[in-house]
Fold this protein.
Amino acid sequence: MPRSLDPAASTDLLRIDDQLSDDERLVRDTVRKFAADRIMPHIADWFEAGTLPKELAPELGSLGLLGMHLTGYGCAGMGPIAYGVTCREMEAADSGLRSLVSVQGSLAMFPIWKYGSEEQKQEWLPRMAAGQAIGCFGLTEPDHGSDPSSMKTHANRSGGDWVLNGAKMWITNGSIADIAVVWADTQDGIRGFLVHKGARGFSARNIHKKMSLRASVTSELHFDDVKLPASAMLPEVRGLKGPLSCLSEARFGIVWGVTGAARACFEAAAGYARTREQFGRKIGGFQLTQGKLAWMLADLQRAQLLALHLGRLKEAGSITPEQVSLGKMSNVRTAIEIARQARTILGANGVTLEYPVIRHANNLESVLTYEGTEEIHTLALGQAITGISAYR
Amino acid sequence: MNIVVLMKQVPDTWSERTLRAADNTLDRDAADAVMNELDEYAIEEGLRLTEAHGGEVTIVSMGPEKATESIRKALSMGADKAVHVSDEALHGSDALVTSAVLAKVLERAGFDLVILGSESTDARTGVLAAMLAERLGVPQLTFASKVDIDGSAIAIHRLADYGYDTVEGTLPAVVSVVEKINEPRYPSFKGIMAAKKKPVETLTVADLGIDPAQVGLAASATEVVEWAKRPPRAAGVVVTDDGDGGTKAAEFLASRKFI
């Protein structure tokens, strides 16, 4: 952390960021400055109003955030740690903003980049990298969340075409997406399809009244006899490993991202403790508060080390899904505990949008559940440890 | 058009800055190093001018090895290449010596326009533009909040208390800029990747044909003899309004020469 942002707070006591390369630090500073200039002045209002301005996407695109870890097709081609740092700095602003970036890059662009035809890549990736086209990822269904292999959405062949029917639920960016990557069951297993906005029979409705990730669009998608040409299918992958590989990419971003949310909460709590007075003295001088802050910092730095370690493994190309599961399970839990602890230090102020803490705490409830619930990641680890699957 | 932007790496303005006890020079290890903020505006202006008139932007920076980090940032913003003057012998050089070294680099590189921030946040002398213009024998157009180029004619708005003066000259010239001039761009990720491949030439004083004895602390015309930490901020003055609050406030402002 540069000491510049909060001279008095030491949020990186272990100087973990000294391990970053010059480029990665430059990425960090760029995203942090963009967030400070363009997101932080408005985020509480966006959260309260339940909106996210779509104009942000081209700005993020021109910075190069969208699909930054992919190569070619207008993507920046950066390494996994730079991607992680970006997620961290975006989520230090808001988990909803990080969701926008990770859904676009890891869930929508990644499958096209990895499993798409050359025509699909040429058609979509440059526009998506520039933020001129938004993508979403449809796997979860109303009745099938942790168990996607039981999905009801299906695509049947009709001559040379496909006919898609079904529904997807909790889809980030769904209603603002120009292109949906939809996973559907077919006669020869689960396949991915690119469904254009405006395709006949395709509709998206926003999910309202959510108390988390409010500065993020969440939708349900409906497919009612949607006719798709053969060229809409992603040719290079079959089976659940397609969507799961995308999720592994995105979860890696979450491992990093939540350390940003946790850091923001810690900074808010530490700053508050240094200025708030009760009983004629700063509350930061009370041992209970110091105990909370000390453990928050220790937990935060452990989470950051874990993220960096997974980044190194990913850089080396040896990262496994179980390792990502451990990171996602552990870091999201750590972040949510830090957010809740920070809330107690801020007292009643901790529940207002004047401070970032309750916003992060609420957001992290979604992050705990999406892209593999804490329970499923726990069971993935249980299986890795014992060799016995608890759910299959 | 061949534009050279001078860029300096400085200790982070927000961190605790200090001088070294041994020789009263800046302790560069005591704080994180960042690009001098006004230089970002200088780079942005250089980039905008080449976008409008063609040509390229060369970054010239004098500083220790770790200044490469700031040079990389400048290249990531879009500058085309860089010259890094790095030599232990330069340690402790004052503005006069610095201007002599930079003038050599500029003569060697050639230029139509030199742009720099109007001051650096560490030493804050604000004299480099004038010194360089004198050494190079070209016009100086300082404290610019706007730059217009038409052929070989250059005109700037020089910010003043009452508005601005228009200052005109001919290229080649030296221009220093203030932060009102533009809004610096962010280094884009593609820019960061592209910067890795951009040429950075590293020069020693010997490469510039300068005698090492003519630079550094010993050769400098100025010297920090003594320094002290800034005293802690004193408590403010509380003005009680007994019907004459306005007068008292005005007197206070007048005593500080604000009005």
